[in-house]
Amino acid sequence: MIGVLVSGTGTNLQALLARAGAIPTAAFELADYADRVDRDAAMAEWLLAYDVRLVVLAGYMHLLTPAFLDRFPNAVVNVHPSLLPQFPGAHAVEEQLEAGVSESGATVHLVDEGVDSGPVLAQERIAVRADDTPETLHQRIKEIEHRLLPRVVEELCAR
Ligand code: GRF
Fold first, then answer.
1. Coil, strand or helix: which one is 158?
2. What residues have CB less than 8 Å from 143, skipping those under 6 apart?
3. Is the pLDDT at 82 greater than 80, yes or no?
4. Candidate from 65-69, 125-129, 141-145, 155-159 with smallest mean pLDDT
5. Integer Cα distance of 145 and 80 in angstroms
6. 93 CA closest ligand 1 atom index
7. For 125, phi and psi rounded to 5 degrees?
8. Residue 2 is inside which H or E element, if any?
9. What is the per-residue pLDDT for 3?
10. Does 11 contact ligand 1 (Cβ within 6 A)?
11. Distance of CA 19 to the CA centre of its chain
12. DSSP-derived pairing of the beta strands 103-110 and 76-80
């Protein structure tokens, strides 16, 4: 069983769902818990009850605490819109354009407690165009993500 955590619009989730059937879902609002540790523990318990062995962050915008990560050792992956370790963080696309980079891309990596800092599992590059805006660049990066993330998840599940 695979668990997927999402905060955003969920296009990467859609890419992962292409072949899936009925999906159990739950929302874990921070406001409903004493703190992040409590929320992360509840999320981990919920996923473990479904016998989840691999957790995929598909646009999940919070850092995970050890209350979560310790329950899934080396089994949480994230997709990020840059060539990590360059440009970690929530504003990677804008920052790459501001820095004037000629190449960008998408990275799938193992998650640790840091910001987009775990070991890289897969990466694919694209050229940045002179007329790119954050929207056009992010759109092309997402096209990569939607291929790369399901491929890596499939490989990890086959292990
Ligand atoms: C993706 O670009 C992903 O790399 C980043 O957040 C974005 C999520 O997009 N972590 P979506 O919600 O899957 O469309």
1. helix
2. none
3. yes
4. 155-159
5. 8
6. 2
7. -100, 150
8. strand 2-5
9. 93
10. yes
11. 19
12. antiparallel
When mean pLDDT is compared across 14-23, 80-89, 103-112, 123-132, the lowest value belongs to 14-23
Nearest CA to 91 among 127, 114, 115, 123? 115
Beta carbons within 10 angstroms of residue 119's beta carbon:
10
Measured N-to-C along each axis, helices 92-99 and 134-158 cross at an angle, to the nearest 10 degrees, of: 120
Look up tokens 């992956």; give the residue.
77
Specify the residue with its C-alpha closest to ligand 1, atom 10: 59
Phi, then psi, of 74 in degrees rounded to 5: 55, 30
Q: Tell whether ligand 1 has an atom less than 6 A from the beta carbon of residue 66.
A: no
Peptide bond into 73 cis (omega under 30): no
Question: Atom of ligand 1 at shortest distance to CA of 8?
Answer: 12
Q: Where are the beta strands (DSSP E) in 42-151?
A: 54-57, 76-80, 103-110, 120-127
Per residue in 108-138, pLDDT tens?
A: 999 999 999 999 999 999 999 999 999 999 9
Q: Tell whether the model's pLDDT for residue 19 goes beyond 70.
A: no
Residue 131: predicted pLDDT: 97
Q: How far is the CA of 118 from the centre of ligand 1 (A)?
A: 17
Cα separation, 122 vs 84, in Å, equals 10
